[in-house]
Amino acid sequence: KNEVEQSPQNLTAQEGEFITINCSYSVGISALHWLQQHPGGGIVSLFMLSSGKKKHGRLIATINIQEKHSSLHITASHPRDSAVYICAALGIVNTGNQFNFGTGTSLTVIP
Amino acid sequence: ETGVTQSPTHLIKTRGQQVTLRCSSQSGHNTVSWYQQALGQGPQFIFQYYREEENGRGNFPPRFSGLQFPNYSSELNVNALELDDSALYLCASSPPDSTQFFGPGTRLTVL
User: Fold this and answer.
1) Which of A78, A100, B74, B92 could form a disulfide with B100 if both were Cys (CB 3.0 to 4.6 A apart)?
2) Which of A67, A75, A74 is nearest to A51 (CA)?
3) Which of A33, A92, A99, A100 has the highest number of chain B CBs within 10 A, making it the mutation to test binding with B?
């Protein structure tokens, strides 16, 4: 069983729609990352959260530490937002850091 | 642009061969992690190096090994390649604050 679960696995939206991707984790974490991966593989870190909420442009990420849950919201979605969004929980391994990744949410935004 | 580069971009090998993948990190990023991402899956943690020593390891056999160098570059070596080793291999470097910067990945195909 993966320690990080994402939903939905696949999501298709019309341009302009408000999108929410959810992430639940079962491990203790020091931080949670939301990552964006485009076709071809390159990964970009969107947010790193340890509490509360962060906003960057049309993207908003929230985390509830007590409930072990995080959400990524995209407002006014656009076709260029089409990508795989991955939630990664950052735990502690020895003196370093180890990510536990969700399997990703594949988002397609249709014009 | 994350400042993390990987080489080569693509690589084709045959079963039983050995491969070396390379990653170049930003100056000051003392930690580097390597991940394997099979098609349609989230990345899986292989191992992490901190100041040139292995600092944590995921569930990968000893034929997966690594090195980290003082110039912030690192290598992932895989011996006795198997068909299931075909995947995207990602490296991610981080400064002390635990933000991770991902490279574009090396896509390895084992025939």
Assistant:
1) B92
2) A67
3) A99
Distance CA(A32)–CA(B82), nearest Å, equals 33
What are the structure tokens assigned to B24, written together?
Answer: 């170049």
**Chain A, nearest residue to B37 by Cα:** A41
Distance CA A45, CA A85 (A): 10
Cβ-nearest to A41 among B41, B55, B105:
B105
Closest CA to B3 of B30, B21, B24: B24
Structure token digits, residue B76? 């992932």
State the amino acid at position B98 in one-letter form: S
Give contacts of B41 with chain A, Cβ < 8 Å: 103
Could you tell me the strand order of the sheet in which B19-24 lies?
A: B5-7, B19-24, B73-78, B64-68
Inspect the interface and report whether the beta carbons of A42 and B104 lie closer than 8 Å.
yes
Q: How confident is the model at residue B1 (pLDDT cuts 50, 70, 90)?
A: low
